[in-house]
Amino acid sequence: MSSSSSSKGQVLVPSLILLWYSSNIGVLLLNKYLLSNYGFHFPIFLTMCHMSACALLSYFSIVLFKLVPVQFLTSTSQFLKISALAIVFCASVVGGNVSLSYLPVSFNQAVGATTPFFTALFAWLVTLKRESWVTYAALVPVVAGVVIASGGEPMFNLFGFVMCISATAARAFKSVLQGILLSSEGSVLAESEKLNSMNLMLYMAPVAVLVLLPTTIIMEPNVLDVIIPLGNRHKFMWLLLFVNSVMAYSANLSNFLVTKHTSALTLQVLGNAKGAVAVVISILLFRNPVTFIGIAGYTMTVIGVVLYGEAKKRFK
């Protein structure tokens, strides 16, 4: 590798990681600000805005600017599988946004850190794939940490907690389902049906919008009656909503690019650290009260996630 290529890589990878961090944490904090501090109480409509931006920007990135080659759908079966993924993905994002209306970001992230537990559970239930006992043992502090954090959370809300757990479970189920449906593992799909994550978003996002539009009309029928006057009173609301939606796509794009230029393992390690960074920033911004028990519980969960990742590597 030439020194020029090496220096470009030294700049590119940290830049992509910075974009990934800022996009993921930015969309999380803006979601919280809009839903809890701005009077914008429409999590389903907010998710539809995110998915609309993902659909439009995916088209620009792939079809117009050719950031990655276009991969075409090859069968009705493949489309139905992608649609199923889109519905599960919608459920996870909507559940997460609803929970932010009731819970502080710090506790939301603590619950979200239990994703490996649900992933292992669904992988066992759906694919009958079993891990070593050491790997399962590492999940004990993951769950125990959230139980402890729940007891020490001053702003605990049962409905918000249930929605957050549901969103976390849906996110884990989506990753297991994606592994089954969109990879060649076990010869479930022909080679021609495999999609990279950017092309997957190109097809998933429009389906998600079609699912979320009637859901918004039924569940949030007064959304326009509220947000138009709200936008007139707060002149920056539309800008925040636009930036938030663009960040939602940027989080998906940067996730793909970081994985492409580093590895899935690097992304996992960075993701563990990202949760802790998001917690610290959210506490500084929103000034939500925290307790020693809550911090101890979240720390235990993060340590459990790290141990789980190490156990999966060593005891395959």
TrEMBL record:
Lineage: superkingdom: Eukaryota
SUPFAM superfamilies: Multidrug resistance efflux transporter EmrE (SSF103481)
Keywords: Membrane, Transmembrane, Transmembrane helix
Membrane topology of the entry: Multi-pass membrane protein
Sugar phosphate transporter domain span: 15-308
Pfam families xref list: TPT
GO CC term, one of those recorded: membrane
Intracellular or extracellular location(s): Membrane
Chief location of this protein within or outside the cell: membrane
Entry keyword annotation includes Membrane: yes
Ranges annotated as spanning the membrane: 12-30, 42-67, 79-100, 106-126, 198-218, 238-258, 265-286, 292-309
Name of this chain's protein: Sugar phosphate transporter domain-containing protein
Organism: Stephania yunnanensis
